Amino acid sequence: MSDQAKRPEKINKVVLAYSGGLDTSVILKWLQTEYGCEVVTFTADLGQGEELEPARHKAELMGIKPEHIFIDDLREEFVRDFVFPMMRANALYEGLYLLGTSIARPLISKRLIEIAKEVGADAVAHGATGKGNDQVRFELSAYALNPDIKVIAPWREWDLTSRTALINFAEQHQIPVPKDKRGESPFSTDANLLHTSSEGKVLEDPWEEVPDYVYSRTVNPEDAPDEPEFITIDFEKGDGVALNGEAMSPATLLAALNELGRKHGIGRLDLVENRFVGMKSRGMYETPGGTIYHLAHRGIEQITLDRGAAHLKDELAPRYAELIYNGFWFAPEREMLQAAIDHSQANVSGTVRMKLYKGGCYVVGRKSPNTLYSEKVVTFEDDAGAYDQRDAAGFIKLNALRLRLLGQRHG
Amino acid sequence: MSDQAKRPEKINKVVLAYSGGLDTSVILKWLQTEYGCEVVTFTADLGQGEELEPARHKAELMGIKPEHIFIDDLREEFVRDFVFPMMRANALYEGLYLLGTSIARPLISKRLIEIAKEVGADAVAHGATGKGNDQVRFELSAYALNPDIKVIAPWREWDLTSRTALINFAEQHQIPVPKDKRGESPFSTDANLLHTSSEGKVLEDPWEEVPDYVYSRTVNPEDAPDEPEFITIDFEKGDGVALNGEAMSPATLLAALNELGRKHGIGRLDLVENRFVGMKSRGMYETPGGTIYHLAHRGIEQITLDRGAAHLKDELAPRYAELIYNGFWFAPEREMLQAAIDHSQANVSGTVRMKLYKGGCYVVGRKSPNTLYSEKVVTFEDDAGAYDQRDAAGFIKLNALRLRLLGQRHG
Amino acid sequence: MSDQAKRPEKINKVVLAYSGGLDTSVILKWLQTEYGCEVVTFTADLGQGEELEPARHKAELMGIKPEHIFIDDLREEFVRDFVFPMMRANALYEGLYLLGTSIARPLISKRLIEIAKEVGADAVAHGATGKGNDQVRFELSAYALNPDIKVIAPWREWDLTSRTALINFAEQHQIPVPKDKRGESPFSTDANLLHTSSEGKVLEDPWEEVPDYVYSRTVNPEDAPDEPEFITIDFEKGDGVALNGEAMSPATLLAALNELGRKHGIGRLDLVENRFVGMKSRGMYETPGGTIYHLAHRGIEQITLDRGAAHLKDELAPRYAELIYNGFWFAPEREMLQAAIDHSQANVSGTVRMKLYKGGCYVVGRKSPNTLYSEKVVTFEDDAGAYDQRDAAGFIKLNALRLRLLGQRHG
Amino acid sequence: MSDQAKRPEKINKVVLAYSGGLDTSVILKWLQTEYGCEVVTFTADLGQGEELEPARHKAELMGIKPEHIFIDDLREEFVRDFVFPMMRANALYEGLYLLGTSIARPLISKRLIEIAKEVGADAVAHGATGKGNDQVRFELSAYALNPDIKVIAPWREWDLTSRTALINFAEQHQIPVPKDKRGESPFSTDANLLHTSSEGKVLEDPWEEVPDYVYSRTVNPEDAPDEPEFITIDFEKGDGVALNGEAMSPATLLAALNELGRKHGIGRLDLVENRFVGMKSRGMYETPGGTIYHLAHRGIEQITLDRGAAHLKDELAPRYAELIYNGFWFAPEREMLQAAIDHSQANVSGTVRMKLYKGGCYVVGRKSPNTLYSEKVVTFEDDAGAYDQRDAAGFIKLNALRLRLLGQRHG
C-alpha cells in the first residue's frame, strides 16, 4: 500500500478510540502496518448499549498488549460533567437539536489524552471521516488538552476510500468481517446515553421521509400507549436528581427517562443542519430522555429564574450551542458562558410534573421552595396592596418617552 | 363616583377599543360620565371568532353616533403585516411562546391612532388592566405613532376594583349584564387568528394542571384522530403561500392551519412567563396553526438559509421576541432587526411536508428550487471531487492553533 | 407646607445619603418636618475630594444623634469591588463613557441598607432628582438588597421646585446658605475617585463647546507638559497592582493615575448620552486615571487573552455597561456577566507601558509571563515548522464552502 | 524548479493582483513559468499614494498584452461602498482597530472576479502570505463571487521561502531588483486611502515601542502644531458629505481628513491583535482621517439616533467588525447586519464640530435638524410639564419588582 516514508511524522505509540467494530479494527491494523507504531486501544461505555468486553478480545487478537487495552465506563461522568452542564443552558443547535453526538466527543478526547499521558503515547487516532463534524470535535479537544499531541485521522489519509477496499484490507489482514457489514449499510449511526443519530445513504434526500427501520431508540408515536403517563422530575441547583420522587444519579436518571421516552415515542427529530465544515447534512436524531429532561428544565426555570437571568440565558444559548456543536467545549469562551449559566442555577430547584403521550411531552405543573412566582402579586383578585396599578402609568410613560421624541421628529 | 375635576386632563373625544362585551361597555359609559367626552368605538375583527355586528348595535344603544362606530376586518393585515414578519424571525418568547397576544396589540393601536386622526379625537382608551403587558403594548404603540395622543386606561384609574362594583355600575347605567358574566369568570381569555390565551383564577397555581374546560381552540390530543395526517406548505420569500398545493392568502392559510391544528390537538402550551411589568404569570396558550407554521418555516429555512444567516437569526431571535412581547413593535430597534431578518428571506422558498398526529407536528420532508443542500457534497459515497477531505486537516489545524497556544501556556 | 397625612406611608426612621451640602441639608430638615421621622445620616468618602467632618458637625447642628451619624471611608471598597470588576469588562456606555457616576451608586445604596438594618430604619432617602438616572440606580439597588425598604426621593415629592423656594426653606429652618449657592449654579457636578461629571445649564446646548471653567480634574491638554511621560502598570488576574513597579492598593493606584491623568490632560469627554428614563442629556466627564487604566487593561489583555474569550467579552461589554448605567448592578444578569468576565481574567497578568502626552494616552509596550503572543509562530522569518502555511489552504476552502454553495445558487 | 505536473490544476488564464513591486513581479513571472498560463494584471488605485503607470510599463516588459493590463482608480468606490458603510456601524475590531486593511480586500477581489469574467480567466492570484488574514479575505470574497474560480496563492505554494531565493529568482528572470529591496525590509506595510499598516520584523516584540521611522502617514504628536484646529463635518443619512461646510465626494472628504489627521498626529495605534488564522500579531496602524471620521460619526449619532437603535448597534458592532476582519464581507450575515445598521441611519444627518490637537481628536459640538435631544425635556429649569417627575416613581417601582421578588426569596 502506501509508503510509510511518506507519512508526515514518525509515531511511536498511538491511542486509538476503538469500538471493536469493523471500521476501527481496520484502522487498528492500518496503524500497525502503516505507521509501524504500537497501538493502545480505548473503548468507552457512554451508554451506547453495546457490550464492551468483545472489544477487549478483538484487540488482544490483533496483538494489543493487555496493559494497552483500556475499557472505561464513563456514563456517570458523561451525564454529570457534560450532558447536565449543557442542559443547564437549554442549548439547542439551530433551534432544535439537543447535541447528543457533539457533547460526547470532548469526553472521549479527554480520556484519549489522559491515556496517552499514562502510557507515554505521542499520538491519538479516531475513526471519524473527513466530511463530518466529529473529526473537528475530537481534534480540537485533543489539541486543547495537549498542544503537542499528534492526531491521526485515517479516513483523511488512507486510500481505503470504498467499502470494497476496506473489506479487502480486512480480509488481507485476517480481520473478521461480519455478514451484515459486507454490503453497504443503508445509513450510519452514533449512539450514547443521550441520543442515537443516523445519517447518510437512505437519509440523503431531505424530501424523503425517514424510513421506519432507521429508528432504534423510540417506538413510533402511533404505537405508543393510548394512555398518557404522568411523571415528576426533581431538580437541585439546575440538575435533575430524582424521578417520581426517587433519587437517582445523573446517568441513572437519564437512562430511566430514556425508557419513558422510548415507550411514548418521544424525541424524534428529522433535521437538515449546517455542519461546521461548511455543508448541509440531513440527520435523524432520537433523544428520548434528553427531550423530556430539556423541557422539564425549562419548566423549573420558569418559576425559579429571574427574568433578567432567563433572558440573558436565552440570548447566550445559541452561541453556546454552536460552540459545542463546532467542537469548542474546551475553549475559554465556552467556559465563560458556562460560568455565567452555572451562576444562574443556584436556585433552580423544585419539581416539575410532565405528561408523556404519543410523541408529545408537556409540562403540566411546577413547584419550588425557591419560586419567584407570586400568586399574591399576579392575582386578578384583590392583591392587598402587593402591586400598585398606578405605578404602571409612570412605567409606561418613561418607556414611551424616547418613542414620543422620535414621533415628534417624524411628525 | 369620583370627581371629574380630578381627572388629569380635559378630553374632548376618545377612541375606545371596543369589543361589545360587558367590560368595554362599562368603560364606554364610564368615559361618557367621568370624562364627559364624546366616545368613538373601534371594533376589530382579528379572527377572534366573534360576531362584530352586535357591537355596533350596543354602541348605538349607548348613544354613539353611527359615524363614530368603526368596525374593521383586519385579518389579512394582521397576518400579512404582523404575524408573518414575526414568523420570519422564528420568534419564541422565553423559548416557547409564539406571542399570539403581543403581536395583535400594535395593529389595534395603529388603527386607534388612525381613527383618532380621522375623527379628530385627542385620546384613545383601552380595556387592559394595570398588571398586565397589554396596557404597555397598547400605549407604547399609541405614543410612538402619535406622541401627543392622550391615553386613558380606566382599569388604572377608576374605583370599580371588584366584580360587584363593575356590575353595579353596569346596572345603574342600564348596561345589560349577561348571566354568565354575573359571577366571577374562572379565567380570562384573549383570542385572535393566531391564538387564544387564558389566564387568571383557576390557572393561578402553576402546580395545578390546566383544567380541560379551559381549552377552546384544540381538541385534547387524546381525542385527536388515530391516524396521522400529512400536509404540505409552500413558502415564497419566507412567507407561507399555499397549503397542500392550493394558493391561499395569509389569513386564509393561517385559518386553514388552525383547523388542522385544532383537529390534531396541536399547539397547546402551559407556561409560566415573565411579564414586562416585573411579575411572573401563568398562562395557557393555544396556537394551533401558528405552531405548525412556525415549525414548517424552520423546515424550509433548513435547506434554503446559509449557516451564517441562520445562526445570526437564532442569536437575534430572543431579543426580537422580547421586543414584541414588551410592546416595542414600533421601535427603531425592532425595525432594524426586521430589516436584517427580512434580508435573509429572499431565497426562503420551497415546500415543507409535515406530519400531524395527536398533539405532535413533525417536519418529514422539504424541497426547494433554492436549496443549499448538496447531496453531491455531503454524500458518504464518492463525491467526484466536490469536497477534498484533506482540506479538513488544515481547517482543524488553524482552528486549533489558538487552543494549542493556550494549552502550551497552561502546560 | 404640605400635609403629612398625605404622605403615602408612615416612616419611623430614615437613613439619608448626606453630603453636608445645602441640598441634602434641606432634605434632612424636610424629612424631619414632613415625615416627622428620625433621620440617620450617611456620608461616604468615595474619593470626591471633600472634607467629611464638616458633615458631622452640620448633622449634629440639625439635631442628629451622634450614634446616627455615619461617616465611612469607602474608597478601597469602591475601587476594589466596583471599579476594578467593571474595568475587567472594558465597559463603555455608548462606546465612550467610563460609567464613573453609575458605578458609585450601588455601593452607596449597599451602605444605606446596611446602616438601615443596623439602626432599625424602615426607609432610606437620597437627593437625586426625578429626571436623572441616579434615582433609578439608588432605588433599584436598595430594593434588591432589601425588598421591604421604603425609599424617599424628596425631589419627586416636595414642592421646592425652584431654587428660590429651596433657599427660602433653608432660611426658614436656619440652614446656612453659602454665598455661592444663593444664585443658580451654572452646572451641577458629581465626583468620586473615578471621575467628575458635570451637566446642566451651561452645558445644555450640545453645539456649544464646554467652557473651560467646567473642568476641575484635568488640565487643558494645551497646558499639559510639552514632554511625554512614560509609565508602567502591572496587572494580576485582571486587576492593576502596581504603578512604575511600585505595588499599590486599588484606591491608591487609581489616585496615583488620577494625578498623572490630571497633569497630562487625559480623560475629558464631552458626550450626549441616552438616559434610562428616556431622554438625551449632555454631560462632560473627566476620568483621568480611569482612562489610562482602561486602555492599559486592554493592552494587557491583548497578549494574555485568547481570541475566543476576547471576542466574547467584546460582544458582552455593551450589555454589561448598559446594566450598570441603568442601575442593575445587583441584578442576576449583571452577576452572570461578571462571572463570565471574571473567568476570563485568570491569566491577565503582566506589565503595560504607556505614553502620556497632552490629552493622549497610548499603549506602547506590553509583556507577560502568560503571554499568548508567539514570535516563533507569527514571524516573517523562518518559523522552524511552528506553522504550516499549507494548512491555510484547507482552512480557507472549508470556510468558503458555504459561500461557494450560495454562489452556485445565485449563479 | 518545481514540476508543473505537480500543480493541482491546469490553469489557462489568471488575473493577478499586481502592484508593480518586486514581490508581485516575481509572482507574475512565476505564474508564467510554473503554470504556463496567460497572466492578466490588475492594479488598483485605492489611495495608497503610489504612481500606477509604472506598473503598466513593468507588466508590458514581462510580456503582458496591453489588453490584459487593468489599472483602475477605485478610490471613490472604495470609500463610498466599503469604508462609509463600515463606518456607519462604528466598527472597531477588538475595541480599537478601524479595519483599514480588511475593508480593502473585498473590493480588490470583486474587481479580480469582474476582470476574470471579462477576459475569460479561470483563476485569480494574489500576493498575500500563508500566515496572514489577507489570503483569507481575498479568497473568501473570490469564492463568494464566483464559486468556480480557481485561486493561486504563490506564497503558500512555491519554494521561494527566503528573501535570497526570491531575489535569485528575480535575477534569473531579468526582473529588476531595486536597491532598497535587496536587504530584508525592517517591516512590511499595506496602505490605502483609509490607513497604512505596518507589521513584522522590528515590530515583532510587543514590549518594544514602535520606532519612529515606521510611521509614514502622521507626524509625531510632539511635532504637531501647538495650536488646536477646529473643523466641522456634515453628515447626511449616516455618511459624511462636507468638511468645514464645503461639499465633498466620499474619497475627497476622506483624503482631506487624512491631511488634517497627518498634520495633527491623529490616528496612530499600536496593537496586538488576534488573526483569524489563530495567532496573535503585533501591528502599527495609522488611520488619520478615519479616526476623525469615526469619532465624528459617533458624535452625530449621539443626537440623532434613538437609544434603542444606538444600543442595538453597539451590541452588533463587535460581530460586524469580526466579520469584516475575517473576510466575510460578501457573506449573508454581514449583509443582514448592514441592513439593520443602514436602517438606523435615515436620520443621522447634521453637523459635528471637532477639535484636533497633538494626537487628540475631540467632539466639541453637534447639531442637527433631526435632533432627538430636547433641551425642553432635559433642562434643570422648569420644563413646563414636558416631563412629569412623578412618572419616575412608577417606572422605578416596576423595574424593581422582579428584584424585590428575588430579594424576598433570599430574605
Automatic annotation (TrEMBL), chains A, B, C, D:
Gene Ontology cellular component terms for the protein in this record: cytoplasm
Protein encoded by which gene: argG
A Pfam family hit: Arginosuc_synth
Lineage per the UniProt record: Bacteria, Pseudomonadati, Pseudomonadota, Alphaproteobacteria, Sphingomonadales
Residue positions binding ATP: 17-25, 44, 127
Domain Arginosuccinate synthase-like N-terminal: 13-176
Protein name stated in the entry: Argininosuccinate synthase
Keyword Cytoplasm found: yes
Major enzyme class: ligase
Subunit structure: Homotetramer.
The EC number(s) this enzyme carries: 6.3.4.5
Residues that coordinate or bind L-aspartate: 129, 133-134
